Records
---
Amino acid sequence: MSFLETILGSIKLENPVIIASGVLATTGEGMKLLYEKGAGAVVTKTTTLNSKPGNPNPTIVSTPSGLLNSMGLPNPGIEEMSREVAVACREGVPVIGSVAGFSVNEFVEVAKRFEEAGVIGVELNISCPHEKVGLIGQDCKLTYQVVKAVKNSVKIPVIVKLTPNVTDIAEIALEAEKAGADALTAINTVKGMAIDVNTGYPILGAKIGGLSGPAIKPIAVRCIYEIYESGVKVPIIGVGGISNWRDALEFLMAGSSAIQIGTAFMKGYQIIEKIKKGLTGYMKKNKLQTLTQIIGIAHKRC
């Protein structure tokens, strides 16, 4: 096992740095480029059965500590996206298909189409804070229904992306695991809002959006810690405000087996190699041989 190799159920990655959904991975060539830049895997833009234009502009607001967005899941639909994914998969890119739907059957159909296109797994987006699919991830019963249905319909690993916009994220995580989830991703963005003080109008076209970036990192670390502490057995993928290798290390220590990068890509592709280099340096300095020696270590020291 190499230094940075990590295991997510039946998925083995060369390194733990995954590109989060919504970041550049909208075309096959874009996915190939992200992999060539050093990513362990790439998550596609969230895809629905039919094409979706998304919310009215403006859809993104910059804040002092991150981005507030309300994109509304714009995507070309699974028919077009599966063609793009197939391009990357033929080149050996480990692609994870991000799935959303407005019914259980739609989740199932999109997941099956991604599987046919060659992805290594699907990530169920039941947590988008500015679309109705976000309500699924706030309800144990709905979470179970969607995860169970998809799990019964595909052979590839099913990953479930959780929302922090709940009272107890561990409760939802356990329900997803009970339904058969092979891994969990935590967290999606945190609900937020911005108002133009010159006009008094909400800035985002959809009024309320999801906050990402450094502001939500402590929330994400707390959520991962609580999920890990709850006794969940499946691996956790941490995401939310990771900007450097020290942030990534913190997520691993909280219980993540891999991490995703989103907003930090504003700094450029080089963030992937910087995180890998930083983690490798830390492991060498501390005479560690595998990432498993780091994962969840914070729980042993409390």
---
Amino acid sequence: MNSMGFFEYLASRWDDLLELSIEHAQVVLVSLFIATVIGVSLGVLTYRRPAAAQVVLAVFSAILTIPSFALFGIVLSLPFMGLGYTPTVVALSAYAVLSILRNTITGLQSVDPAVTESAKGMGLSEWQVLFKIEMPLAWPVIIAGIRVSALLILGIAAIAAYVNGPGLGGDIFSGLSRIGGANSLNLVLGGVLGIVILALVFEVLFAVLGRLTTSRGLG
């Protein structure tokens, strides 16, 4: 194949790039959903227990320090994991938990105790105080953590090509593996451009989601 200009390359492969971008976004969203369930659940269970909160934060901080290639390798070594979608979701979910967990704990701990005491004085149970008072007040901080995790794993998802994962990483790795060859740079630039555009789309979506789900007076 003869090398072509970048815009000519985009015009010839826009449908493939669109399909890869959708796959990339899907695997990030699934991983983010799993990480949100884990992070918010652990945050709710530990925010009133500082020692337990420090332990779970330390565990997921340690996971975040593992280099991406190494973490994908560790995930692959797990039984019945195989290649492709599943190890990608497991690794991305593990990376995404920390910001969500930390912001959940911080958000819930920052609620004014006088507010919760007043709610309890009105007869609300602890769970009612949590879901009717504390979670709505902490939500802007929690969704900020989800947004940070989303942007983090959008980039890391490209490395999932290492384990035959879906998305734009395949083009980037393919281009880098034959750099200097026809359209190798276009492959890399196309993949990177797709991830940048997805990051912008996610930013807009989280801004809209935050505005729609935050209680009036807190936004």
---
Amino acid sequence: MKTDRKILMPYITGGVTPQWTDYLPAMAEAGADAIEVGIPFSDPTLDGVTIQEASNVSLANGTTPQSVLNELSETTVDVPIIVSTYANLAVRKGFCADLKAAGVEGLIVPDLPLEEMPAIEEGIDLALLVSPATPPERAQEIVARSRGFVYAVSSMSTTGERDHLPASAIDLATRLKDATGLPVLVGFGISQPAHAAEAARVADGVIVGAAIMRRVLDGAGPARVGEYVATLRAALD
């Protein structure tokens, strides 16, 4: 992951369209430094309505965890791919080996208790989440055990587009930057270029999911999504 500029990590739900991997090079060419690929899950805990809708569409398309990895393994894109999914899948024996075989470099598991982290096999960067409600001692332990980057949840809510960036996002990013040398990326509610710029005044970058998936669900193809990602890139630069 590039660290000589603010990091931009757009998200896409694997399998949301038959040609979903076409979005990956479009995002990279528009300035993404890494791309989060969500494996659709039928019982999410942190995904808001937009990403839930994307997951339902993808599952209706017949998407499975293995089909997402198979398609990723056939795709060449010049930025790291970070997969996100839930603990029921992530702790499955051999799952991380399958990620590596597909060329995936990192993993996000939002419902993984810190105590269950040993169940995730070595060999993959596991980014752990910290929320504004995480007690300081617990946050310190989480950042110490994160690999790759630390995911700062902007507010106590599910994913989704927001009108403004919560003040809690800046407060949390500031605390985490003081606690770790790993990149701190802010996610949840980053949907406008101004949000990205505001968060990146403190954080090392942003993760943008629902705003992209709303466009995909509304029919935007790779070129139009790339145009939107380029506006985020410009705001961060």
---
Amino acid sequence: MNSKELIIEAGRTESQYWRDLWKYRELFYFLAWRDILVRYKQTIIGMAWALIRPFLTMVVFSVVFGSLAKLPTEGNTPYPIMVFAALLPWQFFSGALSECSNSLINNANLLSKVYFPRLIVPTSAVIVSFVDFMISGIILLGLMAYYNFIPDWRILTLPLFILIAFAASMGTGLWLAALNVEYRDFRYIVPFIVQFGLYISPVGFSSQVVPPEWRLIYSLNPMVGVIDGFRWAILGGESQIYFPGFALSTGLVVLILVSGIWYFRRMERTFADVV
């Protein structure tokens, strides 16, 4: 069995911290795989839940916003495809928030006994939601086949918007994970944030229905830029992106990610004592 010597140098934790992240990559793999298995443990249909939940949400949103409220779609895109193109990043984001916020509390025993970069814990929690995101993509492919919808060249830019969604999820998740250790009120606040965010984000409707004079202010919600980017890449054709709002949302995502890493690193040394 191979073993590696770990030297923790006093006063030099900053310089060795990022190297330790790489050294502890096997712990990251283990935590991510464990969380994936636990998520669907003792369920009858297992990972099929990752397909059922977004599919039923898409059906409800299509009926309420598309059939009853008669809200317009983008171009000639079938309404269910427009909704699901937004549900993919939203479900990834909301799932990551829920998993991250409790990740440090759920691993309290590990935090208080063993040294390792704590950043591994919330990051592995985000990976679990990302796996659900990849599985849910099967529904989008099925909808495209059902409606005979063929995306254009813009679909090649989708990885860029996935990266932005990952940054938004990671940054917000780090904030909530660190705050939840200090203030357990956040276990009640996070579900409210997820529910409220669903209402104010353009998931069930196109952000083009927002009056032009409010589009820039509306883009202060970072998920507006993420969702609009996903729709622009997936729907192609007449789907347009509001670039000033997208630039504002993307800038906020970068700010949230950088500040989230900074705050998490600042509070990290106190986790073992407080948790």
